[in-house]
Amino acid sequence: MAQSKKQKAITIDRDKLHGVDEAIGLAKSGATSKFDETIEVAVNLGVDPRHADQMVRGVVTLPKGTGKTVRVGVFAKGAKADEAREAGADVVGAEDLMEIVQGGTIDFDRCIATPDMMGIVGRLGKVLGPKGLMPNPKLGTVTMNVAQAVKDAKGGQIEYRVEKAGIIHSGIGKASFPAADLRANFDALVDALVKAKPSGAKGKYMKKVAISSTMGAGIKIDTNEVAGA
Prior knowledge:
Subunit structure: Part of the 50S ribosomal subunit.
Function: Binds directly to 23S rRNA. The L1 stalk is quite mobile in the ribosome, and is involved in E site tRNA release.
Shape: globular
Number of strands: 9
Helix content: 25-40%
Number of helices: 8
GO cellular component, one term: cytosolic large ribosomal subunit
CATH class of the largest domain: Alpha Beta
Largest sheet: 4 strands, antiparallel
CATH topology of the largest domain: Ribulose 1,5 Bisphosphate Carboxylase/Oxygenase
Number of domains: 2
Strand content: 15-25%
Keywords: Repressor, Ribonucleoprotein, Ribosomal protein, RNA-binding, rRNA-binding, Translation regulation, tRNA-binding
Strand order of the largest sheet: 7-1-8-9
Organism: Sphingomonas oligophenolica
Order of helices and strands: HHEEEHEHEHHHEEHEE
């Protein structure tokens, strides 16, 4: 495939290993699209997700936020529904919300539910599951503290989950973010992944790390510079 003028103008040695700060700077400078590109991190972990004891999944709050507007849906009734609305939830309901989702309308990016609503939410597994929206107590999205869960979701909390090939992809902010903010978010993500290292993982845990902008080339990072790698 022929390279575009933009790709030709940005020369990145795909084999060279870069320091974290250098890689962030290159990713920012390579984000020249008309829209504010997302800065993304790809981490190849030394795990086999086919084994339950090597699944890496969790949530982390990026200290400088994501730069995205997150719409939050909450399944709750009564006082808990009121708490969710007051905390800033965009969509709140119970059976009525279930019917809306069953009808094909999913107007939220994160889904939270109180435990008593899981009987209703469970019927939506085939709809919410493939989109990664199914509430999960391990991720803090099945909780009685819906107000805090809503605030976390809107305040920079992201979910991460290892894919079949052992890779985790995650955005850590926008290209317009100061480099120091992207570094803070990068460090928070890496720290969370290190803490989530499964006991069944053998050998080198963080095998490869790369950073890129939405439309940019991947920039390899020297894992020796990554804390806990």
